[in-house]
Amino acid sequence: MAVSTRPVSSGPTDPDRRLSVLFTPKLVTVLREGYGLRELRADAVAGLTVAVVALPLSMAIAIASGVSPDRGLYAAIVGGFIISLVGGSRFQIGGPAGAFIVLVSATVAQHGVDGMLLATMMAGVILLGMGALRLGSYIQFIPYPVTVGFTSGIAVIIFASQIKDLLGLSLQAPEPGPLFAKMPVLWHSLPTVTPEAVAVALGTIVVIVGVKRLRPGWPNLLIAVALAAGITALADLPVATIGSHFGGIPQGLPLPSLPALDWAKMQAVLPSAVAFALLGSIESLLSAVVADGMTGRRHRSNCELLAQGTANIGSALFGGLCVTGAIARTATNIRAGAHGPVAGMIHAVALLVFVLVAAPLAAFIPLAALAGVLTIIAWNMVEKEAVWTLLRASRGDAAVLLVTFLLTVFRDLTEAIIVGFALGALLFIHRMSHAVSVEAHVPPVGVDKADGTPAERAPYRPRVTTDPGVVVYRISGAFFFGAVSTVGSVLDRIAAAHNVLVLDFAAVPFIDSSAANTIYGLARKAQRSEVTVYLAGASSGVRRDLLTHGLRQPLVHWTPTVDEALERIRAAGADTSAT
């Protein structure tokens, strides 16, 4: 049996070593564990499987984002390779994601493709900063109703953006982005419906759903798109294709180049860059958490943010869309038996081979088929069970969900996340304020034993003082600004009616400045009324915060426990009586 000679530290971790672990890519970890032909074979199968899924999806997301399909493939190739190479998740698959369609299309419409590329690069820099500052762990503070709300809202917008291609409409003017402006334009264009396009879209959806149910292991998206392309080409259907609309896909990667770094342009696209970075961090870390839940592994959030930042910079250099961790492709990677990040790298290489060898075939793909693919994606993005559960859970959660959803659909995604987060934080503060309680603490009092009562059934406890002027109250829960009003009013009433007040802090995990100031005000008021205050059972952190706010002797008296405070009160009373 082999015995590890690596020393096990029981003390504090060395900071440099801890940082090295936090930012070590998972690829390095996998290679250190030992990587052979068996692991390579598993990763190759998984990588090729994911590439088959990512191929039509990347093109569909790019088209829905208002750019040519090749930019989606560049993002999947460059961004996907970098995320797997230096990422902090063992199974993460990176690439363009449906959640970005709304943001990217709005940025392209307002600032052009160059502006989108500049925003993507700036988002990469922001993500690098977030990772370097170790902000990855804070992403988990985004409330669950907010993530469900904006994801569902994005799904609605994605579906609305595909109505034109689903029906094969011919619009007289450019399609508006906002939903309120879009629907009247689509409605007035209904007479231009192309029956062939509707048939292709419906057929694509039926094949995707049918293959998924009958043969779950088969690449349903690729099969559906390939069948639609073949039928469209053989039957010469009058529907728009990638070839007729975009002129096909270039056969190769472009040379890397920087977007125009104009200061005024950078200021103009900064809001988009921040939105890209925020959504990218949420999506990628959420995907990594899902992967952890499926595999029992644990990702490195800050390392993953560094990888996402590097990948977005790389994707922008090659003209690609912004990238993030893709939940559906990551789950496919795990189900296909991936061993580690090499699977994601193989997926990117497989997509590159397609671009180099088979790019001309993409010209036959009908846009209606890709619209069908995105319709399925939008349907899957809506977490139906989660929405129903949150709507029934509580009024607060339902309000956060609905506000985030409605703002996403009718206003702006960034605004939706900010407002949803603020509402979630207020809801949390409200709930926490009600979790704090002030209750009378009844100290143990000796019970007179009846004659013949076994000692073990009625143990004797020393009787404490029964002076009605002494009162003991216990504060339970996190004592913070949200609970100051309630707790402060109760304590004021208590202190005014007694000679000695003992406050038990044993059940208070932490206290903030507002709460400490409340206790200080209470002690000053008690001092003016000649009421003695004892603070008992406070933890070191709570005691330090209270001392910082001036709660020192003789203003208050400190004791480790309530019992000791009562002993001191009895002793003081006895001394007074003797005197």
Automatic annotation (TrEMBL):
CDD domains: STAS_SulP_like_sulfate_transporter. SUPFAM superfamilies: SpoIIaa-like. Gene3D superfamilies: STAS domain. It is a multi-pass membrane protein. It is found in: Membrane. GO terms for biological process: transmembrane transport. Pfam families: STAS, Sulfate_transp. Signal peptide: none annotated. Residues 460-569 form the STAS domain. PROSITE patterns: STAS. The chain crosses the membrane at residues 44-65, 72-93, 99-129, 141-163, 185-209, 221-248, 268-291, 349-379, 399-429. Keywords: Membrane, Transmembrane, Transmembrane helix. The keyword Transmembrane helix applies. Its main location: membrane. One of its GO terms (cellular component) is membrane. It comes from the Bacteria. This is SulP family inorganic anion transporter. It comes from Roseospira marina.
